[in-house]
Amino acid sequence: MKNITNRNTMIWSSLSTLLPMLVGIFLWNKLPNNIATHFGTSGRADGWDGKGFTVFILPLIFLAIQLFVVFMVHFDPKNRNNSPWLLKIIYWLVPFITFISMLGIYGVAMGYSLLNSEVTTNALLGLVFVVIGILLLVVKQNYTIGIRISWTLNSKENWRRTNRLAGWLLILSGAVFLVNALLQVDWLIYAVIAIIVIIPIGYSFTLFQKGI
User: Fold this and answer.
1) For the whole model, what pTM was predicted?
2) Which site in 93, 110, 198, 203 is 20 to 30 Å from 149, CA atoms measured?
3) Is 147 exposed, middle or buried (0-12, 13-18, 19+ CB in 10 A)?
């Protein structure tokens, strides 16, 4: 029964990444020929693609990413240590990001300027960081998600401590992004990413030197 449920989750979460394609087809006549598909940290558009590429190819790219995640999670022997609900969240993370991102792209293309603002960009980043941070607080040793470096993969205690630290840093970073939705400091994203990458790795190495 568990295998059937897990298989259904993998199938439906993967298929759901194509929902934005159906939305794009429905909105086809309302969308311009060139659509902004990339936005800088300030929330301003800095990259455009054709309508056909945006509606049909972008969802397929997200589907490819989702299938890669599903493959990695499903065939990772250490993921058997993780609870089923945690794996479900991992399976649905890419579809969630896909749906929100594509709705934002369609919204901007149709003239809803609120979706093309620093407020929305920072709020979405904050939400994603918080979700991933919560995952890292509880995820057990595996080869798919988490701070996966030699020291954490060779020591369960090193993994637990390092990923808990990274999890809290991500949650705090998510809160910072939510506040930055109002402050709108452009360079903050780079500083936050540097912190959440450097500190956990340095901490893990320190634990390794202590024999943990």
Assistant:
1) 0.79
2) 93
3) buried
